[in-house]
C-alpha cells in the first residue's frame, strides 16, 4: 500500500499546504494532522512544516513542543518513524530534544529569503537516500531565526559522526555555525532542515525540483522497510 | 499574590545580534564608553497562594529557557505592601 505521510498543522503554520502538495507529488497518501489531536491516524511518516507555530511566542518552536500531537510524534520518532522538520519544524525538533542544538536570530538580524545552494552530505537518512553524497541542490531559504548554534562538543560530534545532512554553499544566509543547514539523529529517521524543500517541487513555482528528492526518498525508505518487515 | 521573577539570558558564548544592534546605535545617541549590550527576558509569574520556587524552577527549565542557548535565574519578588 502507498505510504501515508502526515503533515501537522499548528496554529500559525504556513507551509503545511506546500508540504502536503510536495508529499502528494512524490506519490504519497497525505493526511493532515492537527496540533491538538494526539492521534497520528496510522501515518508512516510525519512532516513538521514551516511557519510560526503558536506565534513563535517565547522562542521559536518552544510552545509547539508541548502540543498534544507532539507527544505522539516524539514517541513515534524514538520508535523509528521518519520525521522531517522544515524551518519552524526544525526549531520544534530541537526544542523537543529530538535533535541537538538550537536555532536563533540570524546574525545580521535580517529576514533572509532567497534561492540557496546546499551540499547534501548525509544520504543515509530516511529523507535523503535518493541524493548522492556531495550533491548540490537549490531550494529556497526563508527565515529570520535560522542560525544553527550548539556548543563546540556537539558541533564536533555532528561532524565526526556524519550527522550534518546539508550545508550552505555560496554564502551562509543566517550565520549558522559551520554553515549547517540540516542535521539528523544517529538513526537517520529524524531530519531537521532550515531551507524549504517543499517549495522546490515544481518548475512553475520553485527554483528547481530538487526538493522533491526528500519526499521521494522517504517513500522509497518506507517501501524498503515494508519489504523487510512484512511476513 | 506571590510573584516569582525569572530572568533569562543568552549564554555568554552565544552571539546576541540584538544586543549588538543596540550597542551599535549608542554612539548615535552620543553615548560613549559602553563595551557591550546583551538582551534577555524578564518573566513575572504570579502564584495564587505562596510563591512556589520549585514550580517556578520547573517552568523555567522546561519552557521559559532553552538550556542549550540560555541561562536563567529565579527569585521571589517581595511585595511592597
From TrEMBL, chain A:
- Identify the EC number(s): 6.3.5.3, 3.5.1.2
Keywords from the UniProt entry: ATP-binding, Cytoplasm, Glutamine amidotransferase, Hydrolase, Ligase, Nucleotide-binding, Purine biosynthesis
What does the UniProt entry say about where the protein is found?
Cytoplasm
Top-rank taxon of the source lineage equals Bacteria
Q: In which pathway does it act?
A: Purine metabolism; IMP biosynthesis via de novo pathway; 5-amino-1-(5-phospho-D-ribosyl)imidazole from N(2)-formyl-N(1)-(5-phospho-D-ribosyl)glycinamide: step 1/2
Active site positions, chain numbering: 87, 196, 198
Catalytically driven reaction(s): L-glutamine + H2O = L-glutamate + NH4(+); N(2)-formyl-N(1)-(5-phospho-beta-D-ribosyl)glycinamide + L-glutamine + ATP + H2O = 2-formamido-N(1)-(5-O-phospho-beta-D-ribosyl)acetamidine + L-glutamate + ADP + phosphate + H(+)
| SUBUNIT field | Part of the FGAM synthase complex composed of 1 PurL, 1 PurQ and 2 PurS subunits.
Describe the task this protein carries out. Answer: Part of the phosphoribosylformylglycinamidine synthase complex involved in the purines biosynthetic pathway. Catalyzes the ATP-dependent conversion of formylglycinamide ribonucleotide (FGAR) and glutamine to yield formylglycinamidine ribonucleotide (FGAM) and glutamate. The FGAM synthase complex is composed of three subunits. PurQ produces an ammonia molecule by converting glutamine to glutamate. PurL transfers the ammonia molecule to FGAR to form FGAM in an ATP-dependent manner.
Protein known as: Phosphoribosylformylglycinamidine synthase subunit PurQ
Q: Which gene encodes it?
A: purQ
From TrEMBL, chain B:
- Give the record's keywords alphabetically: ATP-binding, Cytoplasm, Ligase, Nucleotide-binding, Purine biosynthesis
Q: Which reaction does it catalyse?
A: N(2)-formyl-N(1)-(5-phospho-beta-D-ribosyl)glycinamide + L-glutamine + ATP + H2O = 2-formamido-N(1)-(5-O-phospho-beta-D-ribosyl)acetamidine + L-glutamate + ADP + phosphate + H(+)
The record's annotation in SUPFAM superfamilies points to:
PurS-like (SSF82697)
- List where in the cell it is found: Cytoplasm
Q: Which Pfam families match?
A: PurS
Principal subcellular localisation of the protein: cytoplasm
| Record pathway | Purine metabolism; IMP biosynthesis via de novo pathway; 5-amino-1-(5-phospho-D-ribosyl)imidazole from N(2)-formyl-N(1)-(5-phospho-D-ribosyl)glycinamide: step 1/2
Reading the lineage from the top rank, the first entry is Bacteria
Family statement drawn from the similarity comment of this UniProt entry: Belongs to the PurS family.
- What NCBIfam families does the record point to? phosphoribosylformylglycinamidine synthase subunit PurS, PRK05974.1
Assembly and partners? Part of the FGAM synthase complex composed of 1 PurL, 1 PurQ and 2 PurS subunits.
As for what it does, the entry says:
Part of the phosphoribosylformylglycinamidine synthase complex involved in the purines biosynthetic pathway. Catalyzes the ATP-dependent conversion of formylglycinamide ribonucleotide (FGAR) and glutamine to yield formylglycinamidine ribonucleotide (FGAM) and glutamate. The FGAM synthase complex is composed of three subunits. PurQ produces an ammonia molecule by converting glutamine to glutamate. PurL transfers the ammonia molecule to FGAR to form FGAM in an ATP-dependent manner.
Identify this protein by name: Phosphoribosylformylglycinamidine synthase subunit PurS
Q: Organism source for this protein?
A: Luedemannella flava
Gene for this protein?
A: purS
Amino acid at each position: 500500500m502507498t505510504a501515508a505521510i502526515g503533515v501537522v498543522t499548528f496554529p500559525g503554520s504556513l507551509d503545511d499546504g506546500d508540504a502536503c502538495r510536495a508529499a502528494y507529488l512524490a506519490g504519497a497518501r497525505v493526511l493532515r494532522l492537527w496540533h491538538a489531536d494526539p492521534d497520528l491516524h496510522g501515518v508512516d511518516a510525519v512532516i513538521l512544516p514551516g511557519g510560526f507555530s503558536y506565534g513563535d511566542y517565547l522562542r521559536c518552536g518552544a510552545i509547539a513542543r508541548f502540543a498534544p500531537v507532539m507527544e505522539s510524534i516524539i514517541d513515534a520518532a524514538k520508535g523509528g518513524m521518519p520525521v522531517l522538520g522544515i524551518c519552524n519544524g526544525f526549531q520544534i525538533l530541537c526544542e523537543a530534544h529530538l535533535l541537538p542544538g538550537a536555532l536563533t536570530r540570524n546574525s545580521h538580524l535580517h529576514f533572509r529569503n532567497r534561492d540557496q545552494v546546499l551540499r547534501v552530505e548525509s544520504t543515509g537518512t530516511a529523507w535523503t537516500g535518493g541524493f548522492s553524497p556531495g550533491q548540490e541542490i537549490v531550494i529556497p531559504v526563508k527565515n529570520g531565526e535560522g542560525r544553527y548554534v550548539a556548543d563546540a562538543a556537539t558541533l564536533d560530534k555532528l561532524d565526526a559522526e556524519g550527522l550534518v545532512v546539508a550545508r550552505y554553499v555560496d554564502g551562509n544566509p543566517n550565520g549558522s555555525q559551520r554553515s549547517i543547514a540540516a542535521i539528523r539523529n544517529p538513526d537517520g529517521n529524524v531530519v531537521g532542515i532550515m531551507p524549504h524543500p517543499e517549495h522546490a517541487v515544481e518548475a512553475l513555482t520553485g527554483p528547481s525540483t530538487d526538493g522533491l528528492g526528500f519526499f521521494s526518498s522517504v517513500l522509497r525508505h518506507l517501501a524498503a522497510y515494508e519489504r523487510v518487515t512484512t511476513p | 499574590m506571590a510573584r516569582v521573577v525569572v530572568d533569562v539570558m543568552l549564554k555568554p558564548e552565544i552571539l546576541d545580534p540584538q544586543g549588538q544592534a543596540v550597542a551599535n546605535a549608542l554612539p548615535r545617541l552620543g553615548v560613549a564608553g559602553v563595551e557591550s549590550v546583551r538582551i534577555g527576558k524578564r518573566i513575572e509569574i504570579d502564584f495564587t497562594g505562596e510563591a512556589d520556587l520549585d514550580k517556578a524552577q520547573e517552568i523555567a527549565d522546561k519552557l521559559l529557557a532553552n538550556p542549550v542557548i540560555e541561562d536563567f535565574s529565579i527569585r521571589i519578588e517581595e511585595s511592597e505592601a
